[in-house]
Specification:
Blueprint (H helix, E strand, L loop, with lengths): L19 E6 L2 E6 L12 E5 L1 E3 L3 E5 L5 E9 L5 E6 L16 E3 L5 E8 L7 E6 L5 H8 L24 E4 L11 H9 L3 E8 L14 E5 L1 H12 L4 E4 L1 H9 L10 E5 L14 E4 L7 H10 L1 H14 L9 E4 L5
Parallel strand pairs: 1-17, 3-12, 3-14, 4-11, 14-16
Antiparallel strand pairs: 1-2, 5-6, 6-7, 7-10, 8-9, 9-10, 12-13, 13-15, 16-17
Helix pairs in contact: 5-6
Length: about 325
């Protein structure tokens, strides 16, 4: 996107659900406000939402010799090691590229972090697998000592509450599943009153600054049995399964068979959606605006097709829609398959 939202909409005099919505449907492109979402959905349509909560995943640290560094915690692996991204502490917050195996970073509270190896392979220059002396509950430690991850297009720090969605229940995402941010409790009530169904999945998103064609990283997810059943019933009834965000798409599609039937599942997903793996179960998508070269856009095309996505992005650029986590929204409803 040409323009990124630098502050939350509430700081721009809007409500959460007052951001702009571009609805891209078989009938064409329509400009609306997010509160108008119910008019584009039909009774019996299903919204799949991500219940992952955002962590205060940025920590200030000190390298050897006292040099400052910011550590972005991407995720905690099953063996207790961390995936982390070292960043400069300057405003630009560029990646740190001169760190090596066994480097130690002093963390707040007297804890320390030791880099083990580059992830996912020795040629990677962004993420590290690391051990940390943080005892017990990682979300609790981050709540005491961390802050939300933000990048240079958001020049100042905002409270963690600004990075939570109305659906957040299970802390675990390094960065907010931001497509759901414009939802408010009032809008959810309006949707339910209109006969639209909601079903939860959980996918804990890692660092999402994948804006140069990098593939998405493995992420932990859960599709509970009632959600799988609702997706299948919705499809059988000829209604739409609309995922709220790329994270919800990835979770549902990981649990989808080639015929689109979804079964309950949990674990780690490495699924990459795109031209070689189109969506099987998801038939619509609510999303924010990503940089056009981001791998996220391949996922949008996997759901909505090249033509509709290209038309939506062209119109959003023309009309000055705002991108990234505090920006505007898009509803992609391709023709029924």
């Amino acid at each position: 996107m040409k323009r990124a939202a630098a502050v939350p909409p509430e700081r721009r005099g809007l409500t959460r659900d007052g951001v702009r919505l571009l609805a891209a449907t078989p009938d064409g492109l329509a400009h609306a406000v997010f509160t108008g979402l119910p008019r584009y959905l039909a009774p019996g349509d299903l919204l799949v939402v991500n219940t992952s909560g955002t962590l205060a995943a940025a920590l200030d640290g000190r390298r050897a010799g006292g040099r400052p560094v910011t550590i972005h915690l991407s995720t905690v692996l099953d063996d207790g090691t961390w995936l982390v991204e070292p960043r400069e502490r300057a405003v630009a917050r560029t990646r740190v590229t001169d760190m090596a195996e066994d480097d130690v970073v002093a963390l707040p509270g007297g804890e320390k972090l030791t880099l083990l190896r580059r992830y996912p392979d020795p040629g990677s220059d962004r993420l590290w697998e690391a051990t940390a002396t943080v005892p017990g509950d990682v979300p609790g430690y981050l709540a005491r000592h961390g802050r939300p991850i933000h990048y240079s297009y958001v020049p100042r720090q905002w409270p963690l509450a600004d990075y939570q969605t109305v659906f957040a229940r299970d802390p675990g995402s390094a960065e907010m599943p931001s497509a759901a941010r414009p939802f408010s409790t009032g809008l959810v009530t309006d949707l339910i009153t209109a006969g639209v169904l909601l079903a939860p999945v959980t996918l804990h998103a890692g660092v999402a600054s994948l804006e140069t064609g990098e593939p998405p990283l493995p992420e932990r997810f859960t599709v509970p049995p009632p959600t799988a059943e609702l997706v299948n019933l919705t499809r059988a009834a000829g209604r739409r399964v609309v995922a709220v965000g790329t994270t919800a798409v990835r979770a549902v599609e990981t649990a989808a068979a080639p015929d689109g039937a979804v079964t309950a599942a949990q674990g780690w997903t490495s699924l990459v959606l795109g031209p070689d793996r189109p969506a099987r179960a998801v038939t619509g998508l609510i999303t924010g605006w990503h940089d056009p070269e981001a791998s996220h856009v391949d996922l949008l095309r996997a759901v909505a097709g090249d033509t509709l996505v290209a038309a939506a992005y062209a119109e959003a650029d023309r009309a000055g829609y705002l991108g990234h986590e505090f920006g505007d929204s898009c509803l992609l409803l391709p023709p029924a398959r």
